[in-house]
Design brief:
The chain is an alpha/beta fold and about 625 residues long. About 45% of the residues lie in helices and about 10% in strands. It has 24 helices and 15 strands. It has an 8-stranded parallel beta barrel, surrounded by 7 helices. Helix 12 runs parallel beside helix 13.
Length: about 625
């Protein structure tokens, strides 16, 4: 009935062909190159059209299934419910971690994450940690340096207590391939990590009846945190997952025991629709990777995923913007369909999250569930021409890269030969360049910064500078020299933040004065651009509405004591105004900057003006050069 009504409604509108659309577009472009103007070339290696139509779906093979049906593009289950996770560190004071767990359980959390920081974690510690917590009522997720020990103790506990296997949901962050990737070494499991896989087998054999326990977690988050593209994150994570299947089945284990024990952790960034499509493509690809194994259990082909919002794009400066990032990222995950989500607190990048930030992070998900009802609709993106096309494109490109990894002998071989590092580092360098030139925006960092913000005393250079954190669990592998080049997690904002922190900690208060004159409209536009430009380096900006004459502006600039004077006007005015301003400050030590890239720039350079800023500038390099000139 609904479909008939829809057809009747659409019958009221005359059909428009693609050719007719393109004819109108060509007319509006007035001869401009359509590809350059409208087609978006993604970091993932494929192009996105400005619009899609029903005819674009004709060649897509993944359409026509329902949620819970192979190949699980639309979800591995019939509903869209997900668990709300919050992670708690478990150090020496285990009782404190237990109290924290009880507290968050009363505030909407139903998936508890525990980071076990003590490798000597004992059975008594586990009992203390889980005291008063019903194991069958919540999902438990364990990670950290003590994860192997925690898994062993937990399996002993549930077997001894004879808990219902259908009611125990637990996840363990055992992932030796991630350790190899991050450390560049197998550590004490050298030379090929076989000891790690043998231990996984021991744990799998310990309580085979508990089929809802996932002992292995594939941390696709690592690739995201290193600046990888969506395709790379997906392909390398799936290659990791497949290697676990290969390694464990080679040890004589059944695929139906191994595959369901694997869970994937993915990060979700702010590329909203692409991230939705990524999660749909991930399920499609994993189902097809597992198909040749002819599993007898349907769950062996189902990709189970936990989602964590992005740490890569979190910022230290203007940190409240991270709340907005986390919200849109959680929305992508909820629409894409996952098993559990954790929204990182907005202060995650620079301090141990406080109660306020943790509460806001929890409430983002609770709002999506309780007020926005995202959990009431399964795969709402299905049928969208755009998202279906993105799903297919991501799957296609990720499959190509996955096959390239397999041709080298699997993930470990590809990592040892440097393919993984080369791919990720190349993309990370491109993204860094895009951020430096504002082709990729990090709000509050490389565009629209908070002019009045100063980093508080607790923010140090170590907080914001790029680099891996050393292992702090007390184990020896943190000091081992890497055998292979490790992947290096970082944040996209780090270079800008390090630059701005240098200004904040320099003991100086550099000022940039906007000398607005000539054409009012262009002067104001250029002044706004220049204010945002210099404020990215923590330089105090002194904006001005308008000066009737250059002499008036020069007098005000001199009175301000500014070290930088930015001439803001139209391109036509610069030919006469800029040299006049420059002469007024010649030999004074003041840096005169022209806001724009006027046609008369060669003549201005011949007159001695050497500083220009425009939308084509590398913002990071340019500001660092100004810092050096200012002695910062």
């Amino acid at each position: 009935m609904a479909e008939e009504k829809a057809k009747q409604l659409m019958a009221e509108f005359p059909p428009v062909t693609t050719a007719e659309w393109e004819e109108v577009i060509a007319k509006d472009l007035k001869g401009a190159d359509r590809t350059k103007k409208l087609v978006w070339r993604t970091m993932e290696g494929f192009s996105v059209e400005p619009y899609y139509r029903a005819e674009n779906l004709a060649e897509l093979k993944h359409l026509g299934t329902r949620p819970g049906e192979f190949p699980y593009v639309r979800g591995v289950k019939g509903d869209n419910d997900w668990r709300v996770r919050q992670t708690i560190e478990v150090g020496d004071d285990v009782a404190a971690a237990n109290r924290a767990a009880h507290d968050v359980l009363m505030k909407g959390v139903d998936s508890l994450g525990f980071v076990i920081k003590n490798k000597e974690f004992s059975a008594a510690d586990l009992n203390t940690l889980l005291n008063g917590i019903s194991i069958t009522a919540v999902e438990l997720a364990f990670g950290g340096c003590g994860v192997y020990r925690a898994a062993e103790l937990f399996l002993d506990k549930i077997v001894a207590e004879k808990l219902d296997p259908e009611q125990v949901f637990a996840v363990f962050g055992i992932d030796p391939l991630m350790k190899l990737s991050k450390k560049g070494s197998w550590g004490c499991a050298a030379p090929d990590g076989d000891k790690r896989f043998a231990r996984i087998q021991e744990l799998l054999d310990k309580a085979p009846q508990y089929k809802r326990i996932r002992l292995v977690t594939v941390h696709g988050t690592l690739f995201h945190d290193c600046g990888a593209s969506i395709v790379q994150e997906l392909a390398f994570a799936l290659a990791m997952g497949h290697e676990y299947v290969v390694r464990m089945t080679d040890r004589g284990m059944d695929v139906d025991r191994v595959a369901p024990a694997i869970k994937f952790d993915f990060a979700v960034g702010t590329n909203y629709f692409m991230e939705i499509a990524k999660l749909r493509a991930a399920r499609l690809l994993w189902a097809n990777i597992m198909k040749p194994y002819n599993p007898k259990r349907g769950c062996s082909s189902k990709l189970r995923a936990h989602i964590r919002t992005s740490a890569w794009n979190q910022t230290v400066y203007d940190p409240y913007v991270n709340m907005l990032r986390g919200t849109t990222e959680a929305m992508s995950a909820a629409i894409g369909g996952v098993d559990s989500i954790e929204v990182l607190p907005f202060d995650h990048a620079y301090e141990k999250p406080k109660e306020f930030s943790s509460r806001i992070a929890r409430n983002v998900q609770l709002l999506l569930k309780e007020e926005s009802h995202f959990d009431q609709v399964t795969d709402p993106a299905a049928g969208s021409y755009y998202i279906e096309e993105l799903t297919a494109s991501i799957a296609q490109e990720a499959w190509k890269l996955f096959l390239a990894v397999e041709e080298l002998g699997g993930y470990t071989a590809a990592f040892e030969k440097g393919l993984v590092q080369e791919q990720v580092e190349t993309t990370a360098n491109k993204r860094d360049q895009n951020i430096a030139t504002r082709r990729e925006i990090l709000l509050g960092t490389n565009q629209y910064p908070n002019f009045n913000e100063k980093a508080p005393a607790e923010i140090t250079e170590e907080t914001v500078t790029r680099g891996m954190k050393r292992c702090n669990c007390g184990c020896k592998h943190g000091d081992r020299e890497p055998e292979y080049r490790p992947l290096k997690p970082y944040r996209g904002a780090m270079a800008f933040e390090a630059m701005r922190l240098r200004t904040d900690r320099s003991g100086k208060t550099p000022k940039a004065f906007m000398l607005t004159c000539g054409s009012l409209a262009m002067a104001r536009a250029r002044a706004q651009f220049a204010c945002n430009f210099f404020a990215c380096a923590g330089i105090e900006v002194m904006d001005n509405t308008f000066f009737q004459t250059v002499a008036e502006g020069v007098a005000a600039a001199k009175a301000s004591g500014a070290q930088i004077v930015v001439v803001c006007s139209s391109d036509d005015d610069y030919a006469t105004l800029a040299p006049e301003v420059f002469e007024a400050f010649r030999n004074s030590g003041v840096i005169v900057v022209v806001a724009g890239a006027p046609a008369c720039q060669p003549e201005l350079e011949a007159a001695g003006i050497s500083h220009f800023i425009s939308v084509r500038s590398n913002v990071l390099e340019t500001l660092e050069n100004y810092q050096r000139e200012l002695g910062i």
